[in-house]
Amino acid sequence: MKTKTKRVVIFLGTFALSSMIAGSWAPSALAQDPQVIDITAKRFAFSPNEVHLKAGQPVTLHLVSEDVTHGFFSRPLGLDETIPAKQSVDVKLTPRTPGKYSIICDNFCGSGHGNMKMTFVVE
After folding, report:
1. DSSP class of 49
2. Which has fewest Cβ within 10 Å: 3, 57, 65, 100?
3. Is 32 helix (H, G, I), strand (E, B) or coil?
4. Which of 46, 62, 39 minimizes the C-alpha distance to 112?
5. d(Cα 106, Cα 71) in Å, to the nearest integer?
6. Which residues, in sequence order, are CB contacts of 117 under 8 Å at separation 6+?
7. Beta strand ranges found along 6-69 (DSSP E)
8. Which of 101, 26, 95, 23 has the alpha carbon at shortest distance from 61?
């Protein structure tokens, strides 16, 4: 085989191998695990009180109640979860539209229940 032909064969082989590797690795390399955000609910607050998210980026919300049953509600974000007393719930969310969204506890949890809220800022 002539030298020029060998170079072409080596180039094409390398290109084909690279394409195969890229094809098999690209999806897993590009697919990121969702960001996990821990949010604790206890009378009468969520902690943290404000969370910043990126539009289009999937997140998993790990919601924990330290005391009684709480709600986690936001109509614009399509959230309507119950966090059972002293338990946790994971919720998947992919916010689509930038803005500020209020999340409230919609399960009466005591005298300060009306002030139990937090904010998602979607950028």
Report:
1. S
2. 3
3. coil
4. 46
5. 5
6. 46, 102, 103, 104, 105
7. 35-42, 45-47, 50-53, 59-65
8. 95
pTM: 0.73
Q: What's the length of the chain?
A: 123
The residue to which tokens 């009684």 are assigned: 68
112 Cβ neighbours under 8 A, 6+ residues apart? 43, 44
Q: What is the DSSP string of 55-96?
A: TT--EEEEEEESSS-EEEEETTTTEEEEE-TT-EEEEEE---
- Please tell me the predicted confidence (pLDDT) of residue 28: 46
Q: Is the pLDDT of residue 21 over 80?
A: no
The confidence band for 82, taking pLDDT boundaries of 50, 70 and 90, is very high
- Tell me if residue 44 falls in helix, strand or coil: coil
